[in-house]
Write a structure and sequence with these properties.
With 262 residues, the chain is α+β, with helices and mostly antiparallel strands. Helices cover 34% and strands 24% of the residues. A four-stranded mixed beta sheet has the order 4-5-1-11. A three-stranded antiparallel beta sheet has the order 6-10-9. Strands 2-3 form a two-stranded antiparallel sheet. Strand 9 and strand 10 form a beta hairpin. The longest helix has 22 residues.
């Protein structure tokens, strides 16, 4: 592609395709960012670079730089603005937002994968977790799942129990990230569906299905070895369009926006 960044090339189409009933989820493999950290760091603000410098391990530093730079580049494309000019503010629970921009967004990372979720004027949360056995999984589930969820999880066939844990966990995490309350919202105060082949759904909040009704939830099955989910509260639950795509390494190699002086 031309020597303009992929985000700039997307300006013309991005603003046409992100509508109130469209949810965009984009994935970034950190392997695609190998060798690009210095270039990507140019898009970060001084405060973001200060935060990055506090990481003790190079892998954590590289992951933070890549995630924040790509978040800025994508938002710059959606808003038709220079990515370096974007001013992030933060909720009391640390969720970033841009005031009065009309786009809600969230991001999550695990292992070598970063997910970004975007939509217009609707709370949104996304979560991804690498699927792996952990010690004390039963205790974690018992302490964090609602009683009925825990019972259903224990009844899950052995061959699916680990993945079922992560399906439940990511769906719950995506919801609390959407409501901007983080782990201050008890995970056992609401319930989600997580049976194999069952559509992702928020079923009750504080035992009330009516409180769950305005919320939309989707399983993201595109990422082998990971469980992931996205949750949003759109103005209209009809005809929600979910668009999932990968940010390719070629996109990153074409990032030259900062060199153009714009």
């Amino acid at each position: 592609m031309p020597a303009m960044m992929f985000a700039e090339a997307a300006h013309a189409s991005a603003n046409r395709t992100i509508t109130e009933n469209t949810i965009h989820v984009r994935s970034l493999s950190l392997l695609a960012c190998k060798g690009e950290t210095n270039r990507l760091a140019r898009y970060l603000s001084a405060s973001e670079l200060e935060r990055a410098a506090r990481f003790h391990f190079q892998a954590d530093y590289d992951r933070y730089i890549a995630a924040r730079a790509c978040l800025r580049l994508q938002l710059g494309a959606f808003l038709d603005r220079n990515p370096t000019s974007l001013l992030f503010q933060y909720t009391s629970f640390g969720k970033p937002f841009i005031e009065n921009c009309g786009i809600e967004f969230n991001l999550s990372h695990s292992g070598d994968c970063v997910l970004f979720a975007f939509t217009r004027s609707a709370e949104i949360g996304v979560d991804i977790e690498r699927i792996r056995p952990i010690s004390g999984m039963r205790d974690v589930a018992r302490q964090n799942f609602a009683a009925s969820e825990f019972a259903r999880w224990e009844a899950t066939p052995d061959h699916d129990r680990v993945e079922a844990f992560y399906r439940c966990w990511t769906r719950k995490e995506s919801f609390i990230k959407a409501i901007c309350e983080g782990l201050s919202c008890p995970l056992d105060s609401f319930e989600v569906s997580f049976a194999l082949h069952q559509p992702a759904r928020l079923t009750t909040v504080h035992g009330d299905s009516a409180l769950a009704a305005p919320w939309w939830m989707a399983n993201l099955s595109e990422f082998a070895g990971y469980a992931a989910a996205v949750t949003a509260r759109p103005a209209n639950l009809d005809n929600i369009r979910l668009v999932v795509r990968e940010i390719a390494s070629a996109d990153l190699r074409a990032l030259t926006f900062g060199d153009s002086g714009n």
